[in-house]
Amino acid sequence: MEKSNLIGSIDGALSSSNLLSERGLAYGHGLFETMRLHQGQLPLLSWHLDRLIRDASILSIPLQLPIIERHINDFQRYLRQQKIDNGVVKLIVAAGDGGRGYKNPATIKPRVICVYSDLPQLDHQGVNLWRCQYRLPSNPVLSGIKHLNRLDQVLARNEWTDDLYSDGLMFDQHNQLVETTSANIFLHCPRQGWLTPDLSNAGVSGVMRALLLEEIFPSLAKKVTVTDIDSDRLSGCDHMFICNSVRGLTPVLGFSQDQNLVTLTIGNDVKMLQSALADNYPCFR
Amino acid sequence: MEKSNLIGSIDGALSSSNLLSERGLAYGHGLFETMRLHQGQLPLLSWHLDRLIRDASILSIPLQLPIIERHINDFQRYLRQQKIDNGVVKLIVAAGDGGRGYKNPATIKPRVICVYSDLPQLDHQGVNLWRCQYRLPSNPVLSGIKHLNRLDQVLARNEWTDDLYSDGLMFDQHNQLVETTSANIFLHCPRQGWLTPDLSNAGVSGVMRALLLEEIFPSLAKKVTVTDIDSDRLSGCDHMFICNSVRGLTPVLGFSQDQNLVTLTIGNDVKMLQSALADNYPCFR
Predict the structure, then answer these.
(1) Architecture of the structural domain at B8-117
(2) Whole-number pLDDT of residue A226
(3) CA distance B222 to chain A (A)
(4) Which helix (H) or strand (E) holds B260?
(5) Does residue A1 register a pLDDT over 50?
(6) With bands split at pLDDT 50, 70 and 90, how would you rate the model's confidence at B216?
(7) pLDDT by residue (tens digit) across A217-264?
(8) Which of residues 103-132 of A touch B (CB under 8 A)?
(9) What per-residue string of b and e applies to A227-246 under the rule 16 or more CB within 10 Å gives b?
(10) DSSP sequence for B149-189
(11) Per-residue pLDDT tens digits for B21-41
């Protein structure tokens, strides 16, 4: 390991923490995965690693998968030793040292960070969604990637404080529905069936979204159309759920519209999808 | 200070670094300033702090200016003790602990980070600019702010490796010129005079850009128009310079266009502006 010549301070105290030259902090140059820890295991690990590999190349971050797997493994072992079996493991793969200019260092040595947190409150019974005013910018290069530039989500999530709303619907600048601040969206319309927003220009391509599209919907012989969804389509839907890799599938009970709460019923399809997911992945029971 | 219950690892080693719960790393929730250190002083400090105050509120980061000034002051004193008088001081004001969800903590306690680096190579004689393919997304809420979400600049800066080009021209998705990866742009057209891109939808509103617009151009009784600049206007310009708070004003000698290098002359105006800047701020001599 090279010696750091870093001169820095944090809140007035001198520091040579090498995180001070981390491109993840300087520029958000990195990726993250938020993984459900269940009975000491990470049941969706392979899905998370698949996404990580796919996205890392776009940010020019070379991944050595065996090293990442070893660090995750060591961290899981430590958690087990501490009798911590359930919760969330956040994996950050940042672009490493070299925060002095936007140009990548000659060799990017990614830094692998694992952080544990307790499970958030899970709302299997359903949630209400705020309708965010903040609009996601269009970015075909970065769309889909779970990178560390998340000011869009921070600004949107802090539009409301009312606990009635667990999450918020996010739209793009053409008023097309994209996602919530921390989940993907599926909605059912009487005529078109199941729909989920196209993420070509904005949004995070979630692991749970992929798993539902590739495994769970097909297992029930149900079709989903990936498409543009405007406000009219949203208003016309009869069932909706949101999903992410920590919470699984969460029914939507209502969403805000013009100062009102539009209410929805959960519907049999959503219950069937929840059951099928729980059968395959018991952590989401 | 509350005790941290953080459980984390960095590259496999257990860590309780509180940077692991820093929203600046998790989401890029924070701001930065890159300040020229000259003879132990930060000549543009008040300009940087003015911008910081203006932008922090948009990210809901409460600033206690006396605390920030004290940390900067302490850091400068330390550098003087180390006989370090010239270089760059990067100030990061990050949103502090609370990286478990996008929702801001009830009270945001910003973390103030200072990092020193040596002066980069300065090209007072002029530089060539690459024409970046990557397009800046349109974002009227975040435009102008020097926040920590800088993947746009990272992706654009790494399009070229040829040392012929010191920086790159960046355009938005409507092909309007915005800035370079690390500087603002001013260009002179024979008919319209001095122009600089409007930053309402994309770009960083640089301290040096503000200083030139508010102090240096008026001191020479020269007018600048803030406006949209498309590729045609760019092609028609006869002089151009880029500017930032570390390098001051750098003439542009040429820029890439369709595999060619379009060359420019420096022109008397640019020399006069350089002189006026150096007279007022000797660090840019």
Answers:
(1) 2-Layer Sandwich (3.30)
(2) 98
(3) 32
(4) strand B260-263
(5) no
(6) very high
(7) 999 999 999 999 999 999 999 999 999 999 999 999 999 998 899 999
(8) 103-104, 111-117, 120
(9) eebeeebbeebebbbbbbbb
(10) --HHHHHHHTT---TTEEEEEEEETTS-EEEESSSEEEEEE
(11) 999 999 999 999 999 999 999
B116 to A8: CB separation less than 8 angstroms, yes or no: yes
Q: Which residues of B touch A21 (CB under 8 A)?
A: 115
> In the predicted model, is pLDDT for residue B259 greater than 90?
no
Question: Is B9's CB within 8 Å of A71's CB?
Answer: yes
B73 touches chain A (CB under 8 A): no
- CATH number of the structural domain A127-284: 3.20.10.10
- Indicate the domain borders of chain A: 8-117, 127-284
The C-alpha of A15 sits at a distance from chain B's nearest C-alpha, in angstroms, of 9
The predicted model scores a pTM of 0.96
Please, what is the average pLDDT of chain A?
95
In 3D space, the residue among A120, A216, A136, A206 whose CA is nearest the CA of residue A175 turns out to be: A136
Candidate from A32, A113, A157 with C-beta closest to B8: A113
d(CA A147, CA A235): 31
- Please report the ipTM that was assigned to this predicted complex: 0.96
Residue from B173, B200, B195, B174 nearest B185 by CA: B195
Q: Name the β-bridge partners of A30.
A: A94
